[in-house]
Amino acid sequence: MALAKIVYATMTGNTEGISEILEKAFEDQGLEVDREEADDVDSDFFEDADICVVATYTYDDGELPFDFEDFHDDLEDEDLSGKVFGVAGTGDSELYPDYFCFAADKFEAAFKETGAKKGSDTVKIENEADDDDAKKLQRFAKELVAAAQG
Ligand SMILES: Cc1cc2nc3c(=O)[nH]c(=O)nc-3n(C[C@H](O)[C@H](O)[C@H](O)COP(=O)(O)O)c2cc1C
């Protein structure tokens, strides 16, 4: 059975919420899922994964969450060739229009250094996921699974 691993950081719960939606979306497709908080894992977390997912909010005018800083820097040095990656971000485009979901973009750039294949476009969500966002996340998970199979 294919293994999807999700690592997330959250302050007020929005990103944890999208990580839960993704976990269910992968399970519904018959995958095994391991979902962990950034604080609890190192950058070798994805070593045994088929699908690697980062879910992150953005902080402080375009910055990574503090919990993700080391993980992000070390991720670039991992060899994840043969795996599929996807990034989902939450942010606030009204309060931070010039930096909306920048941390998600930073993770996409880091993944590109690892040799992993991008399985779907990065999903950017306005604060807490609503029903439309949940559908977007389900599509995102489906595309990742299809990319991993293909
Ligand atoms: C101090 C502060 C700075 C923030 N900076 C940004 C930012 O630069 N870009 C952005 O898109 N969102 C920014 N946000 C919004 C959060 O990323 C957004 O509310 C997110 O959904 C929070 O996720 P969480 O509930 O998982 O903690 C900021 C929020 C706070 C409190």
Automatic annotation (TrEMBL):
Task: Name a Pfam family for this protein.
Answer: Flavodoxin_1
Q: List all membrane-crossing ranges.
A: none
Identify a single GO molecular function assigned to this protein.
FMN binding
Keywords assigned by UniProt?
Electron transport, Flavoprotein, FMN, Transport
User: Which positions fall inside the Flavodoxin-like domain?
Assistant: 4-145
SUPFAM superfamilies, sorted: Flavoproteins
The record's comment on protein family reads: Belongs to the flavodoxin family.
| Listed PANTHER family | FLAVODOXIN 1 (PTHR42809:SF1), FLAVODOXIN 2 (PTHR42809)
Q: Which NCBIfam families match?
A: PRK07308.1
* Protein name as annotated: Flavodoxin
Q: Which organism is it from?
A: Loigolactobacillus rennini DSM 20253
Biological classification of the source: Bacteria, Bacillati, Bacillota, Bacilli, Lactobacillales
